[in-house]
Amino acid sequence: AVVSTQSTGSSGINAEYGILVICAIVLVIGALAVSALFCCHMYLVLNGLTTWEHVSHNKITYLKRWPEDSTPFNFGYCKNCFVFCCYCSTQNWEKYIKSLT
Fold first, then answer.
1. C-beta separation of 80 from 86 below 8 A
2. What digits encode the pLDDT tens for the residues 60-72?
3. How does DSSP assign 26-87, residue by residue?
4. Which residues contact 68 (CB under 8 A, 6 or more apart)?
């Protein structure tokens, strides 16, 4: 088999670099979006919040008695990470709420 070693010319090289630049731009934009989403969710994990609790704090009945910057599920950064990553259990929330009053 004979392999062709013909040059594509300068226009072919420029087109290849153009495609690489466009791909790099798309990858950078995608990486920024994923990084922003990761940071937002790490904030929620560290503070023991769900997205719903973060966005609608004033509309949730069990959070109305708590200040805007506080929640009953925040146990500190380390314990929040542990609970999120390693701990799986159910809680009796009615009993928990009664213990607070």
1. no
2. 888 888 888 888 8
3. HHHHHHHHHHHHHHHHHHHHHTT--HHHHH-GGG-GGGTTS-TT--TT---HHHHHHHHHH-
4. 57, 58
Element housing 51 (H / E): helix 51-55
Structure confidence by residue, pLDDT tens digits, 34-46: 999 999 999 999 9
Give the count of alpha carbons within 13 A of 34, CB side only. 6
Please answer whether residues 74 and 80 qualify as being in contact, where contact means their C-beta atoms are separated by less than 8 angstroms: yes
Q: Give the chain's length.
A: 101
**DSSP conformation class of 12:** H
